[in-house]
Amino acid sequence: MSGRRFAVAVASAGLLAGTLCVPASAVASTPSAGPVYWYQIVAQHSGKCLDVAHAKTGHAANVIQGTCAPRGTGYNQQWRIVDSGASGTYIRLIARHSGLCLDVAHASTKHGANVLQGVCGGPAAYNQQWRIEYMKIDGTARIRARHSGSCLDVANARLEHGANVIQATCGGPGSGNNQLWRFRQVGVSWE
Q1: Which of 55, 128, 179, 190 has its CA 20 to 30 A from that of 149?
Q2: Long-range contacts formed by 187-191: CB under 8 A, 24+ apart
Q3: What's the pTM value of the predicted model, to 2 decimals?
């Protein structure tokens, strides 16, 4: 299936299932010549961005929430949405500064497992595959890990810069807006 047809299929399925909050043109099935859309992923409860700590570029660098950088800067807070290659309902989130994937450490299925960036694996790397679940008319969404069914979560609903990002039971005790995220387009590049 061509990249464009795939994106339309994902958009259609997402609208029917209520799980898509980004334009179909932003979901790339495979890297190819054309525009690449970059997003800040903003925590609803704090207004802070999903951030690879200290802009580290290596495997296993920690992911936190950080004060959102001005548009055009802070590449460690910019993420590309790419089809996972395994299913039309799952995507990968790739950090612009490193080219690495958002990843649940050690493929853990436990509540509270750490989220980091890791070398992007193949279609079987379910701990790097995510489903965007549109939650509210305001454009917020949960981001659910395929391997565990858990949601991307700012630990303990902390508000400060540097608060750790984990996976946690979706809608579990203490969860709320710290599991809701908004995608804000901040850049376009060309491949």
Answers
A1: 55
A2: 187/37, 187/38, 187/71, 187/72, 187/78, 187/96, 188/35, 188/36, 188/37, 188/38, 189/35, 189/36, 189/38, 190/33, 190/34, 190/35, 190/36, 191/31, 191/32, 191/33, 191/34, 191/36
A3: 0.83
**Amino acid identity, position 84:** S
Distance CA 186, CA 191 (A): 17
Rounded Cα distance between 92 and 84, Å, is: 5
Please work out, in degrees rounded to the nearest 5, the angle formed at the alpha carbon of residue 84 by the alpha carbons of 82 and 90: 95
Question: Residue type at 29?
Answer: S
pLDDT along the chain (191 residues), means of 10: 38 40 52 86 98 98 98 95 83 98 98 98 94 89 98 98 98 86 96 83
Question: What is the rounded distance in angstroms from the CA atom of residue 139 to the CA atom of residue 137?
Answer: 5
